[in-house]
Amino acid sequence: MMPFANQKTLMLTGPLLLLSLTVSAETLTLDQSIELALKNHPTVISARGNVKTANAGVWNAAGNFLPRVSASGSVSETNSYNPIKENKGYSLGASANLTLFNGGQNIFNYLGAKAGKLYSKNMSEMTQQDLILEVKRRYFNYLAAIKTKEMREESVKQGEEGLKLAESKFEVGSASKSDVLKAKVQYGLDRISFIDAENAIENARSYLTWLIGLDINSNADFSPTYTTKEYTGVESDALNFGLSNYPGLLAAENSLSQAKNTVKSAWGKFLPTVSASLSKSYSNHFWHQVKEFNNDDGSWTIGTTVSLPIFENFSRKYTLSSAKANLNNARASFYYEKNNVSRIIKEAYRNMNRAKEMLVVASETEASAREDMSLTQEKYNLGAATILELLDSRVSLIRAQNDKIQSEFDYNIAVATLENAMGVR
After folding, report:
1. In a 10 Å sphere around its CB, with 0-12 CB exposed, 13-18 middle and 19+ buried, how is residue 198 labelled?
2. 168 found inside a domain
3. Strand, helix or coil at 371?
4. How far is CA 252 from the centre of its chain?
5. Would you say residue 269 lies in a domain?
6. Does the residue 303 lie in any domain?
7. What is the pLDDT of residues 400-421, one digit of tens each?
8. Distance of CA 20 to the CA centre of its chain
9. Rounded CA gap, 344 and 34, in Å?
10. How far is residue 333's CA from residue 255's CA, in Å, rounded to a whole number?
11. Is residue 287 part of a domain?
């Protein structure tokens, strides 16, 4: 059982609750979004097609162990003019040819084809996992955009209240015209930020809808509820699991196995080939006798052939040299891919831990900024703080809220990245 656990459920309330109630059509969860992407995305469809092609290659290689069977029929006519005479001949036949030994080429080609099929399957799995990570990234970006809009809506309300308060204080002479203008400017900026947040939601929704293969003009929307995951294991656990399960590394291992078998098959070209053949034919001057398959008209042929190529214009040398070069490339690729997986997992693990701590700090900072904002607001109401101090405290709160939203996004992505590096869906 993997050490990934559910940490907490993020619920976006307030205006978002109203949003979720007014959604017509379908509201998709993250799992549903991933399922649609894996069904519709062209890169996944193409990768699955490669698996089918590789599977056909295995059947093709296996077919070399079976005899080749063929049937034949012929009609001949001979004319002689001195004396005038016409002879016709009819024949039917069937033959089978089986390669008994060809230096092990059939065996190694079959093993190589099986390794190639596993390579395609693991590459297909890696394609799917990379797509899953991208869907998660876009989904979390959508959730962050929704929370940002909620936060910006709160800022607009605060800005409006601040402007009304500044105007009322100005009317009674306890605030200057400058205070009113500053509050008005801040209120305008808050409204523009709210519009930007609305646009960000629509852009995020459109991209995610496109990514999973739905019409962006549809009413499809995405659930604002997500259960945050956390990794409870240690770094060594992540490394051991990733080195055994990451599909990219498994594909590199399959490619190495395929290259080894290709070299062995190339060596087989230097060895003799032994084949056996069996055929039977029927021939006669009259078609009706041939089609009766009379034993008097039939003949059996059984043969064994041994052939050894002496010189083939260096083609065997070229094939072997090329196979050896590919084997060296595959070895190097496997070594570097193994090191790369370890590097990615270590980096993802460190980033996840940092993101987790940052989320804690961001939550505390947001709570502190909200308290400062409340105190400054009370002081301003009592005339003990200036409009600049009030606006500064509001800006600090907005910044802290943005940092918290970004920290939640970063942590979710860090966990998803670690899952991807480990080969976990």
Report:
1. middle
2. yes
3. helix
4. 16
5. yes
6. no
7. 999 999 999 999 999 999 999 9
8. 30
9. 23
10. 9
11. no
Contact 226, 32 (CB under 8 A): no
- Residue-wise pLDDT for 126-135, tens only, equals 999 999 999 9
Angle (nearest 5°) at CA 106 between 101 and 109: 155
CA angle 355, 132, 334 (to 5 degrees): 85
What confidence category does residue 11 fall into, taking pLDDT thresholds of 50, 70 and 90? very low
- Name residue, tokens 């996004």: 409
Provide the pairing of β-strand 273-284 with 298-307.
antiparallel
> Which amino acid appears at position 102 of this protein?
N
Structurally, the chain folds into a number of domains equal to 1
Closest of 62, 66, 64, 86 to residue 76, by C-alpha: 86
Which residue range forms the structural domain that includes residue 14?
4-67+100-274+311-422
DSSP 114-147: HHHHHHHHHHHHHHHHHHHHHHHHHHHHHHHHHH
Q: Are 110 and 64 contacting, i.e. CB atoms less than 8 angstroms apart?
A: yes
Distance CA 425, CA 273 (A): 48
CA distance 201 to 141: 9
Report the CATH number that the domain containing residue 360 is assigned in CATH. 1.20.1600.10
Q: Give the model confidence (pLDDT) of 179-200 as tens digits.
A: 999 999 999 999 999 999 999 9
Whether 100 contacts 276, CB under 8 Å: yes
